[in-house]
Amino acid sequence: MSTVVISVRIRREVKEILDEAGINVGEIIRNYLEDLARRIKVQRDLDELDAVLSNIEPAEKGFAERFVRGP
Question: Which listed site, 31, 40, 49, 50, has its alpha carbon 20 to 30 Å from 24?
Answer without folding.
Answer: 40
